[in-house]
Amino acid sequence: MILAPIVLFTYNRPWRTRQTIEALQKNHLASESVIFIFSDGPKTEEDEPKVEEVRKFLKTIQGFKQIEIIEREKNWGLAKNIIDGVTKVVNEYGKVIVLEDDIVTSPFFLKFMNEALNRFEDKEKVMHISGYMYPIKTEGLPDTFFIKPTSGWGWATWKRAWKFFERNPQKQINSLTKDQIKDFNLNNSYDYWSQLVLNYEGKLYTWAIFWYLSVYLNNGLSLHPRESLTKNIGTDASGTHFKAKTTMFDVELSKKDNWDFPDIIEEHPLARKRLEEYFNRIKPPIWRRVISKVLPWEVKERIKSFGRKFL
Question: How confident is the model over 115-122, as a mean pLDDT?
């Protein structure tokens, strides 16, 4: 099995970067894996010392087959950095495993990702492999399953799928019907739609919601583990998109080292139901609480107004 390259995106959080790297080094396939690290440049003078501290640490990393560090001279921002980095690496290698600097992995994360990438390499409908799974009720669920939403907290894909990625909010905001918006929002249990509106309004510049939309519009599915192989340690208000601290997404890392993969490629109805139940349980939705802290009143009102056109 040819292993997929790892692509890691870092910025100005030395402690979290170290935690991410140290967990990844403990993975059983780390020493056989190539890793590309894209270090974004500082946005302000205040960011320069932390960015330099991260870069100094990156130069000390060992434990991988090959390490390539790409230091951005200017600040690209998370979305542009990821889109460019993923595109370059996946186009060269045909597949890729992606992490950000606040994702801690199970020692078997790389094993899961590579086995799944190999298993579904030629299955066009499978477009995304996720290492993260929300803390849903797991009774009755198989080891792994397909659902429609993607997750950006440790993921993988192929060149054949990533070629469909598009980030064009002015065009894509009108690409879903009323019924599709409801389905895209998991029966309106989680408001993914508002993220598209915020990008359309120019109040956000993100990538992950457009990857999910690209997968959705191409009738793709995402493979997820029942028990999460990653956890996000950046939901403490230190990250780019989490300005309010939350524990809603906390999980225990799985200790599994082997998995049964589904033979039938279709959305798993019980997994979908459990995810909807989870999102409904955490109401008022976390997206609304985060938005209330970071967005001015007039923007919130425009989101509501825009949404009413469809909902």
Answer: 98
